[in-house]
Amino acid sequence: MNWHPGRRRGFQLLGALVVAYFGLAYVLLPALWSHHEHEPGLASLPMVTRTSTGIPGDALNVGLVGSEKDVLRALQSAGWFPADPVTFRSSIAIVGSVVLDRPYKDAPVSPLYYQGKREQFAFEKPDGRSPDRRHHVRFWQALDAGTDGRPVWLGAATYDRGVGLSRYTAQVTHHIGPDIDAERDLLMHDLTAAGMLDAVFQISGIGPTLFGRNGGGDPYYTDGEIDMGSLVAGGVKRTEPPATLPPPPLVALKDQIWHGVGNAIGQ
């Protein structure tokens, strides 16, 4: 059959577009959203916490490798304070500190759950006098032993920007700031500055998210990666910057594009 030259070119263009679509949708884009895990035991785990009522909570965005003592020592060396347990007394104390604008550097944090377990550790870094504004992070032990034989912890780092009511339950809660990547970066910076990290690397988290909501209904956005830090053993501070295990080139490219989007959102 003889095709009109214009029609033949049209079919050729259509075929090229179909091939390009399948290559983009089924090869390139999936490669952008996933990468080799330096801790393969984490690859199949969920990457979002839950509230006590089962509502999806804060996204996981940080992780540490080390013993319980290593974790406690590292966070305190980096200037983060262990949060008091939630009791009647501590609840009254935090209300009074917020109302009276008094310092409470180890104020309690509300519980979150990961794989049915409440956080084992919670730390905070004050931002001003009152605990209504603070940086904080919760940690759960995700693996008993990672690739180097030590426990692996996953955490959710967020910024409390003020006290208010949950959009879902109307309970009194802290509202978080939307840029959770900035909180991840702050924690890793503090640990690095304190000489507490031997190595840093990324693993895949929830993936790029523009319009996430936490358990209180607060919006957040993230590039979806989890920054992991391998802690120094025995508290022996590292005098050099930690070794960096870079992500694959496609993931690095995705992160650069995403950070440009995130910066535009934050303005």
**Computed structural class:** alpha+beta
Percentage beta strand: 25-35%
* Number of structural units classed as domains: 1
Query: Helix amount, in percent?
Result: 25-40%
Could you describe the largest sheet, including whether it forms a barrel? 9 strands, mixed
Provide the low-confidence segments as ranges.
90-101
- Quote the distance from N terminus to C terminus: 59 Å
Task: Write the H/E string, N to C.
Answer: HEEEHEHEEEEEEHEEEEEH
Strand tally: 15
Query: What average pLDDT do the residues reach?
Result: 80
Compute the CA-based radius of gyration.
22 Å
Q: Number of helical runs?
A: 5
Bulk shape: globular
Fill in the keyword field for this structure:
nine-stranded mixed sheet; alpha+beta; 5 helices; two-stranded antiparallel sheet
Please write out the topology.
Elements: H1 5-33, E1 48-50, E2 56-59, E3 62-65, H2 68-77, E4 81-82, H3 88-100, E5 113-114, E6 117-118, E7 121-126, E8 134-143, E9 152-165, E10 172-176, H4 180-193, E11 197-204, E12 209-213, E13 219-222, E14 225-231, E15 243-245, H5 249-266
Parallel strand pairs: 3-14, 11-15
Antiparallel strand pairs: 1-2, 3-9, 4-7, 5-6, 7-8, 8-9, 9-10, 11-14, 12-13
What does this 3D model show about the protein?
- Helix content is 31%, strand content 30%.
- The chain has one domain.
- The strands form four sheets. Strands 3, 4, 7, 8, 9, 10, 11, 14 and 15 form a nine-stranded mixed β-sheet that branches. The protein has a two-stranded antiparallel ribbon with strand order 1-2.
- It is α+β, with helices and mostly antiparallel strands and 267 residues long.
- The chain is globular.
